[in-house]
Amino acid sequence: MIYQEAFKKIQEARSILLLTHVNPDADTLGSALALYHQLRSMGKRCKVFNATQLPYNLDFLPGIEKVSKQIPKKYDLMISFDAGDFQRLGIEERGAFLINIDHHRSNTAYGDINLIEPDFAATAQVVYKLLRLNSLIPTKEAALCLYTALVDDCGFFKYESVDEEVFEMAGALCRCGVEPHYVAKQLTMREPLAKLRLIQRLLETLELYHKGRVGVIRLTQDMLKATGAAKEMADDALSMVRSLATVEVAVLLREEEDGRIKVSLRSKDLVDVSRIALTFGGGGHKNAAGFTDGEDMDGVLRELLEKLAKEKGIETKE
Ligand code: 5GP
Ligand code: MN
Questions:
Q1: pLDDT in tens, 63-114
Q2: What pTM, to 2 d.p., does this model score?
Q3: Least packed by Cβ within 10 Å: which of 141, 147, 203, 223?
Q4: Which residues surround the ion ligand 2 when the cut-off is CB under 5 Å?
Q5: How far is the CA of 211 from the centre of ligand 2 (A)?
Q6: What is the side-by-side strand order in the sheet with 249-255?
Q7: CA of 291 to the centre of ligand 1 (A)
Q8: How many angstroms separate the alpha carbon of residue 270 from the centre of ligand 2?
Q9: Of all atoms in ligand 1, which is nearest to the CA of residue 289?
Q10: Which CATH number fits domain 2-188: 3.90.1640.10, 3.30.390.10, 3.40.50.300, 1.10.10.10?
Q11: Which ligand is nearest to the CA of 152?
């Protein structure tokens, strides 16, 4: 069984490198840190790597201060978390056997062992399955990391991916010592003023297309400078756009530091935005996906709107 095979590799390894994806979220960091705590409790040496900046609101995750931009000199096993393709890890080359743990349907199976569960709500759920199938009970720290990853990736139990098993995992993690309100408070109730100022500006850019079924907001580098906000702070504005009654697909067009255009897509249940992101060289999930394309914001939007017009649930001829 592949989960036992993966665990055997972990047991045989002396020093393990845990890899999280660029522009990390709670799922990649929480999953990696959960395994970090669990493996350390078993006496393993491990390091967590991330190539980019960490989000402002995950500072409460135990072990986050150990996450490093440095690849250690020696390690004999790599494990990646929540990264649909190898490029998302932001590393040049693979220096050891690689276990790829993920829940993206678009995962390219770049590992030597691939634990991929496209129907799972979070990569944390795959990590939890790995622990359970090997009779391990999460430590208190690991449970907190897994719970945070899980609730963040399923929108606090709102998304289509939520089922009985998600609640069972959440319940089991509570039995390991997690306090749900503590996590909710850390994730959602200590926002900086800069974030609200940014959301204010973002909502001013809102444009509706295709009979109000597509909502678009734009984020420029100037808006980040003017408000002092971080780019991931735009996520909630995008959720607000999706929350509109008429909207089926919400689009965030973001100007990156290098001028390239990063596009984030969110849908309700009719449109599979991961398919659309794939046609632009990106990826993601049915209801949350993204890609980076060119430097012409209006051009990218035009092309995207043309593709969206053909989607069931958006098409305007009736
Ligand atoms: P976000 O829009 O928040 O950056 O990402 C939403 C989802 O789409 C996440 O699951 C993320 O992994 C995926 N995603 C976003 N951008 C890219 C990309 O450029 N390539 C791939 N493969 N996936 C992406
Ligand atoms: Mn995820």
A1: 999 999 999 999 999 999 999 999 999 999 899 999 999 999 999 999 999 9
A2: 0.94
A3: 203
A4: 27, 82, 123, 153
A5: 31
A6: 207-209, 214-219, 249-255, 261-267, 288-292, 283-284
A7: 6
A8: 21
A9: 8
A10: 3.90.1640.10
A11: 2
